[in-house]
Amino acid sequence: MLRGFYSAASGMMAQQRHQEALANNIANVNTPGYKADQATLRAFPEMLLQQMGTKNVPTQNNIKFPVSNPIGSINTGVYVHEMVPNFGQGDLRETNISTDLALVNGNFPDEEGNVFFTVQNEGGEVRYTRNGNFTVDGNGYLTTSQGYYVLDASGNQIQTDGLEFAVTPNGQLQVNGQAIQLGISYTANANDMEKEGNDLYNGNAGPVPAGVNFTVQQGFLEGSNVDSMRSMTEMMESYRMFEMNQRVLRAYDESLDKAVNQVGRLG
């Protein structure tokens, strides 16, 4: 009975985390470049149940041998193993603002590959983002909307001296007669990238290798790839699963109450 009690409780906790992920996706439905989180559920390791006992051997000393009869396997619950972002391409939205840039995926040699803008966080560390909602700070440097410096292909901050610049489809920024290659990084497995908040990712990414095709569109923003209707439907399903586990938990609680307070009193 207690095993079922804990299994139902673990199911409630897993569905609660699933709902939190879905709620966060819905809250970021209008965040440029946001990639929806997907909760992966996994069962706890299986347990092999066996019936333990003894068997009498018809001998003069009545010897008893220990025996065990396999009953079968059972899972002890479920948990959220990890949150995996969906790196599918978001829809493009035209803004006609020169500092807005959108990455458009091309043909990648790796099935899980993806490209990112390269930025510098407040600690001076290199991070990656798909949010191209950039701006120019008071010193003329290209930054993200959170104030992180956008880097070029050499890892340097980009000086634009204002908003008058053009960006070619291959990611070259044309300013004051000079061509500056934007820092576009590629990873063969985007699922290894870790979200850090503020639209930043941390992971193993490097220069774009030959054979990786992408385009940069100026005056556009890549929208969130969250499907709001689907997320709402999944949230309702998750809530129903939570309620089902809650009913099971209540049934076990009532059974324990009867076993302790009523059966014991009859004895």
Automatic annotation (TrEMBL):
Span of domain Flagellar basal body rod protein N-terminal: 5-35
Major location category of this protein: other
Matching InterPro entries: Flag_bb_rod_N (IPR001444), Flagellar_basal_body_rod_CS (IPR019776), Flagellar_FlgE/F/G (IPR020013), Flg_bb/hook_C_dom (IPR010930), FlgE/F/G-like (IPR037925), LlgE_F_G-like_D1 (IPR053967)
PROSITE patterns the record matches: FLAGELLA_BB_ROD
One of the GO biological process terms: bacterial-type flagellum-dependent swarming motility
GO CC, any one term: bacterial-type flagellum basal body
Keywords, in A-Z order: Bacterial flagellum, Cell projection, Cilium, Flagellum
Coiled-coil stretches noted in the UniProt entry, renumbered to this chain: none
Pfam family, any one: Flg_bb_rod
Residue stretches making up the Flagellar hook protein FlgE/F/G-like D1 domain: 112-174
Subcellular location: Bacterial flagellum basal body
Flagellar basal-body/hook protein C-terminal domain ranges (all copies): 217-261
Membership in a protein family: Belongs to the flagella basal body rod proteins family.
PANTHER family: FLAGELLAR BASAL-BODY ROD PROTEIN FLGG (PTHR30435:SF19), FLAGELLAR PROTEIN (PTHR30435)
Name by which UniProt lists this protein: Flagellar basal-body rod protein FlgG
Species annotation: Ornithinibacillus halophilus
